[in-house]
Amino acid sequence: MIVIFVLGYSAIAFEHKLGVDKAAAALITGVLCWTVYVLGAYDIVDFNSIPDYLLSMFAEDNVELTKHDVIKHYVTEFQMYESLAEIASILFFLIGAMTIVELVDAHEGFAVITDRITTTKKSKLLWIVGILSFFFSAALDNLTTSIVMVSLLRKLIKDDKDRWTFAGLVIIAANAGGAWSPIGDVTTTMLWIGKQITADSIVIGLIVPSMVCLIVPLLILSRKMKGDVVRPMKQENADHYLDPTTPFERKFVFFSGLFGLILVPIFKTYTHLPPFMGMMLSLGMLWLLTDILHRRKNMEFRSKFSVLGALRKIDTPSVLFFLGILLAVGSLQGAGQLRELAGGLDSSIGTDTREGVYAVSMIIGLLSSIVDNVPLVAASMGMYELGGENLFFHTNGLFWEFLAYCAGTGGSALIIGSAAGVAVMGLEKMSFVWYLKNMSLLAIVGYIAGAITYIIQYTILN
User: How would you label 380-401 residue by residue, b for 16+ Cβ within 10 Å and e otherwise?
Assistant: First the structure.
């Protein structure tokens, strides 16, 4: 399974040299990993680890099941569908966010922001984009923020390579912004819901290190980026002039869409339903509002400015790429490789001292740039008991707080190390190798600078 994952990962990394789309490589990798897991399940899964209630369920279905059959049922009917539920929630969230952004874009709603960004100076624009992404991510989340900011960048920057640099910064900024907010990143939300951290503590403890994680790459990039960006010319077809959207409609759809995106984390906080439910609610509300807004217009116009029109424009290959990557990571989580990885770190380094906690958390953060940070954090939550004699593992303890920073920001080191990176890679067709050459070192420098800031801050306050 690890060999298949590495080969698939390599195919994604070198998609331009191979001439094979990354979505195809990701899908094949995901399915093959699960196939090998199912075929070898008897030698991988510990029968005694299967919960008793599942054993009784399987027995009710078929009393003649052998031990081998029970293990296979456990993998295919429990682990796979449990993983699929998590994957589906992310994909529905992604589809909802992309559709809302496309709908706002169809109404030229982003002009509300782009018309107010008058500068074309690269260094100044970098700071504007970075700061916007940082605070958007804390209020929305890093995945939604990356989708919104890529749409904004397309209105501001014509040249692909220049836009890739700004998009790379968006990944770093969105991940940094998500780390200090309990709703900004999936892993931070997991730790918050699991009571490993509290909302006020994570904001106070991580906002400064997270800002440093962004500011250091920003300072380096702004010194390198000279000159002005070229803005794309507005391409407006005949329909725009025959029956254009009015200034009121643009502002109405923009602020309605923004309100819908902000509603998602609020809805999750109060209902404890998965984030995709809030996103579907927001999409449904915006669908209703735009249908009412354009109800008196001709059918051809309505089809272009409705959710149905936006759905035709969303980037389906990116969604399938996400599916393949998450399937592959889900198989490694189910088979236990990620749990063994986390256990190996603990046994070789240890978490009995501050230095050990720092080392383990930073390594987990960097590993999250190769495999998804969610299963790594989930494995850590399962390994270490909340509370106990070790103060590092109490609520708001050193381990959990520093892990939230590392898992949230470490994924920026590689483009497929975070949901924000995968989304940008799909939307902008950015290559893995380009990001590795141009952005990875900046992300790692920012990551280390933020970690050092946290260590100094913790030492002073404790």
Answer: bbeebeeeeeeebbeeebbbbb
Neighbours of 297 (CB within 10 A): 11
pLDDT digit string, tens, across residues 107-126 = 878 878 878 888 889 989 99
Exposure letters 59-93 (e unless 16+ CB within 10 A, then b): eeeeeeeeeeebbbbbbeebbbeebeebbebbbbb
Report the alpha-carbon distance of residue 454 to residue 296 in Å, rounded. Answer: 57
Q: Render pLDDT for 348-383 as a digit per residue (tens, 0 to 9).
A: 887 778 888 899 889 988 988 887 677 677 777 767
Residue 246: burial class (beta carbons within 10 Å; 0-12, 13-18, 19+) = exposed
* Half-sphere exposure for 241 (CA within 13 Å, toward CB): 5
Residue 232 tokens read as: 């794309």
- Return d(Cα 152, Cα 379) in angstroms, integer: 36
| Span 75-108, pLDDT tens digits | 888 889 888 888 888 888 888 888 888 888 888 7
What is the per-residue pLDDT across 19-73, written as a single tens digit (0 to 9) for each? 888 889 989 999 999 999 998 888 888 777 777 767 677 666 555 667 777 888 8
pTM for the model stands at: 0.77
